[in-house]
Amino acid sequence: MREIFKQEMEQLGEELLTMARLMCSAIEKATQSLETADLTLAEEVIDADSHIDEIERSLDERGVSLLARQQPVATDLRIVVSALRLSATMERMGDLARHLAYVARGRYPEVASTGRMQQILQQMGQQAVKVARQVVELLETRDLNLAEKIEADDDVLDRLHRESFQVVLDDDEQLTRQQLVDAVLLGRYLERFGDHGVSVARRISFLVTGDLQNAVVNTGTMLGLKDEETGGKQTTRQ
Amino acid sequence: MREIFKQEMEQLGEELLTMARLMCSAIEKATQSLETADLTLAEEVIDADSHIDEIERSLDERGVSLLARQQPVATDLRIVVSALRLSATMERMGDLARHLAYVARGRYPEVASTGRMQQILQQMGQQAVKVARQVVELLETRDLNLAEKIEADDDVLDRLHRESFQVVLDDDEQLTRQQLVDAVLLGRYLERFGDHGVSVARRISFLVTGDLQNAVVNTGTMLGLKDEETGGKQTTRQ
């Protein structure tokens, strides 16, 4: 029984890895499509998202079926439940990459941003890609140092996000209304992507170590603190 | 065994209801704090959010413990898993209400928006409150007609969100940079709140009817279609 459970858990792990790779490819292409106004790449991201959604459904089925047949208890049970949440979060990361691609497609043949804002958004995009690649590597290698690196990279992402607000709120920055709207939305999507990456890293740490206390920090609370930093409050009053 | 399971499911249902009521109160106060620049109300929403987070953790514990002890299979198992997701989504709705409150607090003693944008955001807020109240009522009464009403109200929310883009993109609209940023973020928060409301309504429908096919539509895909309408693409090029 235990052996079968272990095999099934490995299959679940394989499917999570496939999902992570697709999610990583989505954010790589989406950020590049934004940088270079590449319509083909943007369309690829948009089209490929349904594949990520399919895997999420398959993972769901597999997880619930595993619960029904193997009836794991204690830590094993928590691991399966955690894997299901991991999958939901990665699906959401794929969605956010698709949102970036929508903006790239909507502005084609122009790029969505220029000047200082373009620089910041490109850096944010690079951080998001870094987070995604490390999530894949974390699943592949189970090297828990990567989880810490993901948190550090997300901190950089948050700092860049705050910088982006300084630019949009600066009247001296020449920005069209569309560029302003895009900057706010793109910044938000990328910041959320990083937050989800951190949440995923913590869950994977739990899957590896079984250390619930350390890994399953309440995501809402964790994200909440960050949202306060970036959302409405710290953007300066005019 | 079945009787105990039923009782435990009822307790889970009670906790979901408590959570829904807190989430509803949060959006009511948050939208009012935005309308009237009421700092006290905004602070109340921000402080109360940790309570919603606590209930989510408690529900998680209860759900996982129920899975471990009762080892439900088939539909019962899916119901428990679905309840856990419902709880995660309502926690997120609480977070979004808190984001609104952050903006209200950040702009105090001013209101965040004026003129046409204020009207649209107020209407969006009213729709969000309507969605939340109906979610509570749906949990209380299990009247599935409410699920349809929630979807219709979310459609109105999406329409208003598109209107909000027309305003921010209209150079003739006198808006400060801060008002532009706030309008984009508030619109996004409220639109997401509605989407989550629809997702919750579908899951509750499933909890009531056991009709998986109808209720557990992939949330990501569902939301994705909406995001395309509102995110980057349909906002007119400049």
TrEMBL record, chains A, B:
The protein's matches in SUPFAM superfamilies, at most eight in alphabetical order, are given as:
PhoU-like (SSF109755)
Entries under Gene3D superfamilies matching the protein: Phosphate transport system protein phou homolog 2, domain 2
What highest taxon heads this organism's lineage? Bacteria
* Localisation per UniProt entry: Cytoplasm
Q: Which GO terms describe its biological process?
A: intracellular phosphate ion homeostasis; negative regulation of phosphate metabolic process; phosphate ion transport
Name residues in a coiled coil. none
Keywords from the named record: Cytoplasm, Phosphate transport, Transport
Question: Which Pfam families does the record cross-reference, listed alphabetically?
Answer: PhoU (PF01895)
Q: Which residues form the PhoU domain?
A: 17-102, 121-204
Query: GO cellular-component terms in the record?
Result: cytoplasm
Q: Which PANTHER family match?
A: PHOSPHATE-SPECIFIC TRANSPORT SYSTEM ACCESSORY PROTEIN PHOU
Function summary: Plays a role in the regulation of phosphate uptake.
Query: How does this protein assemble?
Result: Homodimer.
**NCBIfam families linked to this entry:** phoU_full
Protein family: Belongs to the PhoU family.
- Protein's name in the database: Phosphate-specific transport system accessory protein PhoU
Species whose genome carries this gene: Georgenia soli
